[in-house]
Amino acid sequence: HMIVGRWSEPYCSYEPCENTKPWVWTGSLPIIEKYLTDLKPVKWGQCWVFAGTQCTLARAIGIPARTVTNFQSAHDVKPYDSFVTKHWTYSPVYSSGSITGYVWKHDSQYDRDSIWNFHVWNEMWMKRPDLQGSACGSVSLDGWQAVDATWQEQSDLTNLISPSDPGRYYQCGPIPVVAIKNKCTAVKYDYPFVYGEVESVVEEVVRNLKEYPTLSLSHPRSSDWKRDVWGYSVDSTEVGKLMSTSAIGGDIYRRNVVTAKYKTPDKERQLGEVAEPTRVLELPIMTDEWGSVSLEIPTTVEAGVDWKIVLTTKKFDAAAGSVDVAWSLCILHYNGKFSHHIKEEEQTLQIGDTGIGRLEASVLSLEYAHLLKHGVTMGFTASIQENDKLITRITDVRTAIKLPHIDVQLIQGARIKRCLPDDDEVIDFSLTVHNPFKKLGVNESMLLAEIGGMDSNPKTASARFEWPVPKLEAGQDFRLVESASSVVALGCGKHTIAAAWDISEFAETQDAVGSAEFLIDCSACGTNADPHDESVDARVKLSEMPVVPISESMQPVHARKGVKGAKP
User: Is the entire prediction scored with pTM above 0.70?
Assistant: First the structure.
């Protein structure tokens, strides 16, 4: 196998470190180059690394392929039931050894299923003669097939490479995308898992230690969790959002939303556009005829900026009073699992005689900055109750924390004119990074960059550049300049410089990124070179693309057998 996956520290256990953190890769070419040079698996990859590399390899042998990102992607563990189950307990509150009240708390330690911030797989365009006669009615199963190179769950089918091998492998697909949308459950391969990623229902099971005080707080039985009382809830809109691939035309940041290819278009909240920086959510009301509760919460927060939310209540009876709000904010891992507490509060929300109440809560950046090395997503959980009456409850509403973009600048302009006497076909560019934290320093780190389409550059004999960055104090900037980098090997048209900043104070993500475009203008070359700019070409329609038949003897080769603890 070409890439080994890893999802937690340490990514390097000795110095000098020859490994690369998954989010530091700027493209698939350096991975393939390293594999062919060292002839051993490359460390390390995660879902987007596996998918990006598999996309390159598929295209290289003539299979039309693309990567697809699924936001709020469910991981339903076996036995698959297409439910992501969360656990809540009405727990006693103690003071001086005595019970003084009860409050709803999310018992995340019992959650086995998970929802990742995102997951990336591939689609490959194929004919499927092997599925003729499958239980999908008149639906054609040719076309885009979901193929996932990330090691997750062992396939429900035995070894697809050698039918005589009874072993189970970490492989997924190819499953026709149209089979997911049409719920063709009998279609191969690995329908239940992929369907669960995009269509799982989130449920909150509950137990009540006030009504049943003899239940064990720390050793619950499966029968303790109830689905018919105390605000049990289901949500079919939380999973599978803004499923995206790159749009045609060469702009790597332009999105083509493909959610409707996987699920029916009546679920508007899942098919929607890119989320605003702040969103307002209408929370589910557990008590009939009570009123409404809304939550204003940031979708993203720049590192170094305080986090703030607003809860607004409106009672139907317009009577003054109060409700109790118990809320917490924590750091979540990439897969939605609890990592570290940031803050936990129990507050009273006062309701005026108009029936309207408002509560603002905040967390200073100083309270969370030191925890970002454990994860870069904050999860907000809250319950609101009036005496013993549950009004509403929400679990791990997420805010992503982002570093500022790397500022990539072309120093002498973004146009290189080829075939002119004074043109040596080199570019000068600068990269600037900024430590956004108010008190936290950033230790020595690395900046990396790659010019798309360039197999290697003469300065590094590699496809990418690497530069050390000194320690940065709070609020400090660092700028470097790369001069006279040859682009003779590139063709006419647009090209992109992509950069990444690897810092230890920010975990589980491509820490900070940036890019800039430049144009190689061949209009002066006459007959000595083809001035054609391929980036503006019209693209071939999918219906006119070549198709690659797949049979039982031509199955995906990305599977690995018996890997323990494999994760997406």
Answer: yes
